[in-house]
Structure formats: structure tokens, C-alpha cells
Amino acid sequence: MDYRDFEMNKHFHSDGSFRSKFRKSSKFMYLVAFVLFLGVALTFLNIFELHKMREDYNQHHEMFPHVEGIQDDKTGTGQVVWVQGKNMHSGYLKHVHNVFQQIGFTPGDQSDDWTVLWAHDYPFKTLSKELAHLKKYQKVNHFPGSGFITNKVSLATSKMKFIPKAFKLPSQKDQFVAFSKSHPDMMWVQKNNNHRGIQIKGAEELDMTKEGSFIQEFIDKPFLIDGHKFDIGVYTILTSINPLRVYIVEDDALIRFCPEEYYPFDTAVRDKYVVHDEYMPLWKIPSLRSLYSDKGFNFKTTLNQYMKSKGLDYEKVWNDMKSAIQQVYLEKEPKLIEYSAKYPSTDHFFEMVRFDFVLDEKLNTYLMEVNMSPNLSSRHFAQNKRLYEHVVFNVLSLVGLAEYVSHEHLDYEEIGRVAPTDVRVFPEVCNGKICSESCVSSQCKLCRRCVNRQTETFLMRAYLEHNRRWSTRRVLPPPVNQTQALLWDPATYWPGSETMSDRNRLMFHWFVGKCRQSMDFCV
Ligand SMILES: *[C@@H]1O[C@H](CO)[C@@H](O)[C@H](O)[C@H]1NC(C)=O
Ligand SMILES: *[C@@H]1O[C@H](CO)[C@@H](O)[C@H](O)[C@H]1NC(C)=O
Questions:
Q1: Of 500, 499, 425, which Cα lies nearest the Cα of 456?
Q2: Domain for residue 341, yes or no?
Q3: Does residue 417 belong to any structural domain of this protein?
Q4: Mean pLDDT in the chain?
Q5: Please, what is the end-to-end C-alpha distance for the chain in angstroms?
Q6: What is the pTM of this model?
Q7: How far is it, in rounded angstroms, from Cα 62 to Cα 246?
Q8: 508 and 438 in one domain?
Q9: Does 39 fall in a domain?
Q10: Which of 28-42, 199-213, 356-370, 407-421 shows the lowest per-residue confidence on average (mean pLDDT)?
Q11: Minimal-distance CA residue to ligand 2 atom 1
Q12: Same-domain check for residues 360 and 421
């Protein structure tokens, strides 16, 4: 009921002068007319309310189309998400909740029959009891041992060419002292696992005794836009180890700028060279504002278009970042396999992290860190809601959570979605004499008579993922184009690799085979 209508009626009645203005005979008529008017008005109001209720109902059901279907499900497999983190009331996981709600999940906790655990912090120590005996359909948003990738010391001291040179303290102190003496021009930053407490220092000012910290080369001469240094955050999703499957959100990235211009350079002013929580958003950068704010492009397209307009090869930059991501996972996969060994299956696990890169003037790419549970809070910048929800949706879509599947079937086949016939590749080879007689030759490994059930299962998972990838794209195994696929020799490794596990080779080879069949599986 509209409050203002009620107020007006009150005034009407309480106005004493009203009645005296009219003769007694017409008073009755007015009363009847008024009552009639009131009746009609009330009827209209009711119709309006009913209409509005229906509209709300429709809107709600458009927004949450799956909710009803799942709750009515006769098999009782209503899906529950257990979102876990410290101080959740502060709302930093709001966008995670939003997306789960959109795709039909209800929030719950460990006491429920949950389908997915979305833990903000690494859960394998604190929740080891809950995670020791997972039901076959339960999924968890981390991999055991993923700290080998996201731990700053561990990552920085992995010797890869795109990681700025680093020394672990105190164990590599002597090496550092020797190195810095022969490279007096290099600047250094001291970091530790918990803080990005970054401040540039001369070699002589560093505290060499601090346990759990490291010293890293500072990348000077960064690539600047309108005088500001920036970093690029690439959202990366690991869906499988042994074989490895890694994807990135392909169509967008987080691009954050330092609040102050880099030059004139001053090590005392961190705002010139450190991207932190209070960063400067892309739309504050004059050369980018119009593309982003007026023309409505996303972060990635805005950056690419800017670089293109300056004649710079942005494709190379993205390819270098992909190649860095590939190398990190290939390097750390053995550790991940080792740490996952005590779990009966790693099919439960997936993980989304953010790789942060900076560029130098020559457009060389440097990996600064990998964030487990990257910040998805849009508290400072409401505009980031779109990106964060897009990322979360992509992750959930890729791992098959954004599409309702009855738990009964998740074991092996998802009826109508995938069947063993969908994963057959290399018909010309498998139909030939060699592979009809034995499985010894490497080219026969993917033929029906040579794949065991376990292999067939991970191939079917790969097939489903590929079809559910939304705007993510695979970085491992590396995609090939159809020309390469047709020339492919099954005895070799993937481009640029010298070693490769049998499983990884099989997985790669399978994608090559699918790419021969359909362009959709190629680059
Ligand atoms: C995440 O970012 C928000 C700003 O959007 C900030 O307030 C918050 O402290 C950040 N959280 C963490 C854990 O870094
Ligand atoms: C396929 O990839 C190879 C190697 O990267 C490249 O040389 C070739 O031009 C590509 N072919 C097509 C049709 O894109």
C-alpha cells in the first residue's frame, strides 16, 4: 500500500471545514461517490499489485532458471556449495556466492551433503578430515601441493628465464653477495611469503638473516602507459594433473596501475613501482579511459588496442605469458603428483589462480607472483564485479559445475554429453595393420583396443571440459593448428619440450587427433 495515499486520505477527513461547505442533501451523494471511488481505486490497486507480483516472480525465475529444477529433483541430488573462509561476513566472497546462486546452488557447510567446497584458504591441512574421504561427485577448488606454485619463495627461486633472479635467505646469502658484487647496477627487493612488503634497497641495506624471505632482482625500465607502471593478472585454471590440463580465461585479464608516475624514479615512493590494493584502475589512465569507459571495451581489449595503436606486438606479450604459465606447471607437476598421492583420486580437485606479470620497455615478460585465491572483492572498484563474476563462472563452467548433472552418472559417463565413441582418434592409424595386431607402437596408444578404462575416463573428462570451456582456452597441452596436427608425428613431444611424461604425451596426442577431426579442437 502506498504510504502517500494514506497520508492524503487522512488530511481529507480531518479537514473540519470540508463538511460545512455542502448542503445536507448532496452530502449523501458525495459520500456514495466517494465510497465508489474508493472501491474502484482499491480494485485497481489490487490488479496492479497482482501484476507486479507476477512480474517479480518471472524476473526471479529468469534470473535463477535452474533453482526449481534442482530442488524438485526426485533423486535428491540438490546441489550445495560450501563456501569457506575467514571473516566471510565482510563480503569479499560475494561474487563467488552470486555465481553459485545463479547456477542453482544453495549455500551450506560441512554438515550438508555438499557438491563443491570453495575454500578461500588452502584447505588440505585445516579440513583434512573432511577431505580424506570425498564422495565421487564432490569437488574442491584447490589441489594438494599447489603451494609449490603459489608460494613466493618457492616460485621466485625456481630458475626460469621469465622469473627475475632471486636468492633464498639465509641459505643463499653467499651466492647473493657474490652475484650482487659483480652486478653493481642491479636493484633488489626483499620479499617474504606473507607480505608483498616491497621496498627497493641497495645490496648493503638488506637483512640477510631473515628466515623465510628472499631477495629478488628489481625489474627497472618497466613498460609504462602515460608514465605509469602496471601489471597484468591472468586467471589460470588447473583441472587435471597427470595428465596436465591448464586453461586461462582468454578474453579478459586484470590490469592494475601504480598510483604515481614512475619517473622521476625514487625508491622511497612505493606508489611509483608497487601495485598494491590501492592501485590505480585502468579507467583513470588518460590514453585508456575512452576505450574502456566510453566505447565499452574490457580490460584486455583496451590494452591490446592501445599497444596496437603504438605499433607494438601485443600477441607476442600474451604468447610469452602463456608460455610462462606452461613452464611453471610442467616444472611443478611432479610435486603436485607427489602431494596428491595420498588421495584416492585427483578428479575432485580444480584450482583457479592469478599469474601476475609485468613488462619491461622491450616488452619482455616477467612473472612476479602467482596468487592462490586471488582477490575477488569489488569493494574498491565496483566495476570489477563483471570481471570477477565472469572468471568464477568460467571456472565453474569448465569443471562442469555450471551445468546440472545427476550425481549418479558422474562416475563414468554423462549420458548424452560424452560416450567412449567421442574420444576415438586417428582412424587411419587404428584401422591399419600395425595397431590391429599390437599396442607396442607409440602411434597405437589411443586406439580402442589399447586404451584402458582409466585412460578412457580422463579422455572423456578432457572432452567434456573442452566443450564446457566457455571463454577459457587451453594452455596445456598446448593447442596446435590443423596444419600442424596433420603433420604430427606421434613419436615426438610437443613443441619446445624435451621431456614429457607418458600421460602428458598421450593427452597432447589426443588433442592433436581431435584437431585433425575438427577445427574446433585446434588453436
Ligand atoms: C581485496 O581487495 C579489496 C579492495 O577491493 C580490499 O579492501 C581487501 O583488503 C583485499 N583483500 C585481500 C585479502 O587482499
Ligand atoms: C600453424 O602453426 C605453425 C607453427 O606455429 C605456423 O608456422 C603455421 O603458419 C600455422 N598454420 C596456419 C594455417 O595457421
A1: 425
A2: yes
A3: yes
A4: 86
A5: 59
A6: 0.85
A7: 33
A8: yes
A9: no
A10: 28-42
A11: 481
A12: no
**Which one of 322, 323, 481 would you pick to mutate in the ligand 2 pocket, going by the greatest count of ligand atoms within 8 A of its CB?**
481
Alpha-carbon 102 to chain mean position: 17
Nearest CA to ligand 1 atom 11: 375
What are 298's three cell numbers?
A: 574490457
Nearest bound ligand to CA 319? 2
For the CA of 378, the closest atom of ligand 1 is 5
Residues 6 or more apart from 235 whose CB is under 8 A from it? 248, 249, 253, 254, 352, 353, 354, 374, 391, 394, 395
Element (DSSP H or E) covering residue 79: none
Strand order from edge to edge, sheet including 188-192:
166-169, 213-217, 188-192, 200-201
DSSP 143: -
Q: Three-class SS of residue 398?
A: helix
Range of the domain at 335: 147-154+222-238+248-371
**Domain tally, the chain:** 3
Question: Are residues 270 and 332 located together in one domain of the fold?
Answer: yes
DSSP class of residue 360? B
How remote is the C-alpha of 196 from its chain's centroid?
22
Q: Which of 87, 88, 90, 92 to mutate to test the pocket of ligand 1 (most atoms within 8 A of CB)?
A: 92
Is 285 part of a structural domain of the chain? Answer: yes
User: Is 481 near ligand 2, meaning CB less than 6 Å away?
Assistant: yes
Residue that finishes a domain, picked among 371, 396, 428:
371
Same domain, 213 and 226: no
Is 277 a pocket residue for ligand 1 (Cβ < 6 Å)? yes
Give the range among 274-288, 321-335, 389-403, 480-494 with minimum mean pLDDT: 480-494
Q: 334 and 449: one domain?
A: no
CA 395 to centroid of chain Cα atoms: 5
- Classify strands 365-372 and 351-359 as parallel, antiparallel or unpaired: antiparallel
Assess whether 196 and 232 both reside in one domain: no
CA–centroid distance, 375 to ligand 1, in Å, is 6
The CATH number of the domain holding residue 350 is 3.30.470.20
pLDDT at 25: 55
DSSP assignments along 233-281, one per residue? EEEEEEEETTTTEEEEE-S--EEEE-SS-S-S--TT-GGGT---TTPEE
pLDDT digits (tens, 9 = 90+) for 62-79: 333 333 334 444 333 469
pLDDT of residue 17: 41
pLDDT attached to residue 30: 64
